[in-house]
């Protein structure tokens, strides 16, 4: 028997989205999985769902759910969003499809529902035991010992484990311990913007008060508002605003200031958010961070996955999708190797450049969403992109489509996206209408630049 097959029990730290899914993968491989979770059980106690009420799941995340047999049920609770609906300050709407046609959509899903669903399905395998209110505060990787605080009693105990997985999110305690080891490092960059969640309630009879199948964006330069639909007819809005500056969380101190700001910038949203002032002052202001760490493992004893290894800002809707893809790749690595260390090393080698790429694309997409989506030039480029996607299927590829609707490595999506973006920009020079794009020239550029690059990779 090989080392991996011989290991009976493993421990996962954190029963968030990635930890719960990982537990399921490991259980399917035959391990007994002990999961230690700091929070109470959200299926029994009313607790804040954590960061963001809903999130967008796309091809990578859905693929992972499919592998463990959960995609269909998850999709039954999701709302497809087929494009962006841009709201101008005067309330005019402009729609941009995300993909080449209606079939390409990202899906809005309740984070709390998904987390509960994953925990329950992991437990239902009969091999996963989740212990709640158990906070890991220290890890000794060589001895295989975790020091765990019981949040109810305050008592501390030791948990022994041959292999541990750190899926304890962006502020990971496991990562903190790991970076104390020689040769390990981690860099964090806090965004100078924070976010605040607000609610657009369902209309009479649970009706959606705005287009249901779109991700709504109110782009306003250095800040923006977005809204994603929920199953019950409501929308969760997220206001992204600098912490400090002339228009910032710091500058909005009174109900009158908040109302005036919305009246001026988001009048159509204001009309739909009756609890604006209450929500604004009651709801916490969230922070966003990019974490790049390396390596993600200690020999064959510990491995970081998900936000613990690589937290990213939310503007590409890929943090969870990327963490779920980690699980897919780990599963492949475990199938190829007999020793944990070899599997962990390969996983890190395969994933690191891709995690870095999506981290960078997420930051770039912030600028695109808050700034460029209101720019007529950008709208023209997106329209031309769509023409090319349809005219040259399989040959012309856009960054957004590759990230959201394919499973090609993020690094490749980044590089192909840069080439494709260059082609679109060149074709748009002097153009006023997407229909007038020179398809002959487009074909030449695609065959000169994009096709050879994709073939080579
Ligand atoms: P988490 O979900 O943070 O889970 C970590 C778990 O570990 C938690 O349950 C926590 O309680 C537990 N824990 C922490 N410390 C300890 C400890 N010491 N001991 C024991 N347990 C511990 N991603 C998308 O793919 N699509 C989106 O649309 C999207 N939108 C987002 C919007 C916002 C505003 C934000 C902030 C993020 C968004 N994300 C999105 C990113 C996504 O939320 C994360 O990538 C995802 O939650 C990561 O999952 P995780 O399991 O790695 O970490």
The molecules bound to the chains, other than polymers, are:
flavin-adenine dinucleotide
Q: State the total count of DSSP E strands.
A: 19
Overall 3D shape: globular
* CATH top level label of the largest domain: Alpha Beta
**Strand order in the largest sheet:** 6-5-14-15-16-13-17
β-strand amount: 15-25%
User: Low-confidence parts, pLDDT < 50 over ≥5 residues?
Assistant: none
Structural class: alpha/beta
The share of residues in helices is 40-55%
Q: What is the CATH superfamily classification of the largest domain?
A: FAD/NAD(P)-binding domain
Distance between the termini: 37 Å
Give the averaged pLDDT, no decimals.
Answer: 95
Annotated CATH architecture of the largest domain:
3-Layer(bba) Sandwich
Please give the largest β-sheet. Answer: 7 strands, mixed
- Number of helices in the DSSP assignment: 16
Per the CATH scheme, the topology name of the largest domain is FAD/NAD(P)-binding domain
Tally of discrete structural domains: 3
Task: Describe the 3D structure.
The chain has helices spanning 3-6, 17-28, 59-67, 71-76, 111-124, 173-178, 255-265, 267-270, 276-282, 307-310, 319-336, 340-370, 376-391, 399-405, 410-428, 439-456, and strands at 9-13, 32-36, 54-57, 79-81, 83-87, 93-97, 106-110, 128-131, 134-140, 145-150, 156-160, 164-166, 185-200, 214-219, 224-229, 235-242, 286-294, 297-298, 302-304. It has 457 residues and is of the alpha/beta class. The chain folds into three domains: 3-80 and 109-188 and 289-365, FAD/NAD(P)-binding domain; 189-287, no CATH class; 375-456, no CATH class. A seven-stranded mixed beta sheet has the order 6-5-14-15-16-13-17. β14 and β15 (224-229) form a beta hairpin. α2 packs parallel to α11 (319-336) and α15 (410-428) packs antiparallel against α16 (439-456). The longest helix has 31 residues, at 340-370. The chain starts with a helix and ends with a helix. The model has no long low-confidence stretch (mean pLDDT 95). Bound molecules: flavin-adenine dinucleotide (FAD). The site of flavin-adenine dinucleotide (FAD) has 35 residues, from α2, β3, β9, β17 and α10.
């Amino acid at each position: 028997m090989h080392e991996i097959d011989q290991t009976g029990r493993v421990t996962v730290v954190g029963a968030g989205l990635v930890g719960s899914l990982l537990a399921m993968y490991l259980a399917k491989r035959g391990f007994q999985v002990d999961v230690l979770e700091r929070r109470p059980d959200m299926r029994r106690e009313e607790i804040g769902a954590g960061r963001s009420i809903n999130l967008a799941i796309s091809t990578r995340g859905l693929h992972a759910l499919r592998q463990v047999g959960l995609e269909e049920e998850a999709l039954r609770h999701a709302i497809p969003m087929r494009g962006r609906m841009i709201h101008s300050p005067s309330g005019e709407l402009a729609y941009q499809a995300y993909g080449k046609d209606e079939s390409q959509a990202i899906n809005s899903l309740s984070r709390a529902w998904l987390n509960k669903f994953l925990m329950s399905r992991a437990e239902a395998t009969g091999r996963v035991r989740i212990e709640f209110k158990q906070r890991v505060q220290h890890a000794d990787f060589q001895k295989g010992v975790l020091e765990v605080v019981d949040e109810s009693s305050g008592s501390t105990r030791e948990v022994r484990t041959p292999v541990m997985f750190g899926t304890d999110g962006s502020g990971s305690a496991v990562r903190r311990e790991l970076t104390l080891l020689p040769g390990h490092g981690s860099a964090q960059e806090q965004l100078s913007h924070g976010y605040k969640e607000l609610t657009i309630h369902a209309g009479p009879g649970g009706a959606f008060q705005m287009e249901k199948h779109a991700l709504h964006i109110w782009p306003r330069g250095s800040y923006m508002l977005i809204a994603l639909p929920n199953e019950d007819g409501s929308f969760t809005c997220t206001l992204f605003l600098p912490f400090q500056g002339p228009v910032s969380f710091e500058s909005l101190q009174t109900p009158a200031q908040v109302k005036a700001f919305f009246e001026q910038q988001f009048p159509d949203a204001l009309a739909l958010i009756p609890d604006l002032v209450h929500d604004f002052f009651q709801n916490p202001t969230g922070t966003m961070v990019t974490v790049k760490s390396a390596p993600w493992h200690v020999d064959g004893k510990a491995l970081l996955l998900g936000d613990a290894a690589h937290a990213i800002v939310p503007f590409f809707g890929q943090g969870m999708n990327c963490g779920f893809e980690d699980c897919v790749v780990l599963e492949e690595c475990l199938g190829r190797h007999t020793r944990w260390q070899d599997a962990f090393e390969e996983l890190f080698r395969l994933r690191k450049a891709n995690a870095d790429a999506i981290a960078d694309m997420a930051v770039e997409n912030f600028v695109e969403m808050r700034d460029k989506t209101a720019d007529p030039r950008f709208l023209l480029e997106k329209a031309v992109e769509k023409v090319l996607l349809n005219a040259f299927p399989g040959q012309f590829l856009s960054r957004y489509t590759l990230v959201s609707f394919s499973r090609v490595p993020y690094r490749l999506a980044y590089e192909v996206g840069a080439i494709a973006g260059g082609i679109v920009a060149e074709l748009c020079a002097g153009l006023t209408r997407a229909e007038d794009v020179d398809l002959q020239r487009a074909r030449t550029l695609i065959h000169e630049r994009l096709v050879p690059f994709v073939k080579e990779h």
